[in-house]
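ok so i was messing around last nite and threw this chain in just to see what happens. nothing serious, just curious
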Amino acid sequence: MQLKLKQDYTYDAKTGDIVVKADRLTSGVKLTISAQAEEDVKIDYTLQTYGDTEDVTVTQDAGSMTISQTAESASMVGNKGTAGKNVSYILFPQSKEAAKMTLKLKVNSFSNGKYSGVYAGAFQPDGDYLYNSIGFRGTGDANAVSPYWLKASGKAGNGSPKQAWTEGAVYTVSIEKKADNTYYATFQEEGSETVNEKTFKASDSALTPDIMAQFGLAVYSADVTVTDMVLSDMSGFANCYRGGFCNESGTVCRKRIYYTEHR
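result:
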């Protein structure tokens, strides 16, 4: 017997008692009661700095975050299990709930030419140092903006789609975990209709969603401003960085991930 209408029964939330009306029961009836709770998972997230914490300054103001990394000599992780040189990571904590990050960024300057970089993606700031990202590098060529990751071979490199960096431009970047155990990333330059896409497959990437990593940024010898930073859970519910809310009322639905500020 299934009771689908509320007039068939009463429920006391304080005691948990369910009372079924007598006229709904007949002799020999088998009554099965099942219930599903409404989830309201609230996870408080705070961006934290890892790696080189001495050469980085994070400034926050009215919904934006500016990261200045001043290492005179630095380089990104080039091999699995080997740390890069003077790389600063600004990351959210590890979480199985976190599934997608989107943001807008503007690179204000590359202070050390081709030895400067800003990367938005998923990272391991220690251990194997695996990562999948969209990289912005001061190379001054058509490879400057592109997917950049630690490949299945254990060595880092970039791949298509590639394009030159436009000084002063704002780029929208997203990266997410997919059900087929891949990461999927996009990047788009402001004013362009082209959305560049990259799928990081297990066949060519050392980092897959079943391996723990943290969403955020890696920066060295560069200055970057980030806005509209959003971290979403598996259901797509999210809250945003420092007041850039995901809907007009400034609130979101069930199963939320909140994050506040860098520390």
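not much to say yet. The mean pLDDT is 83.
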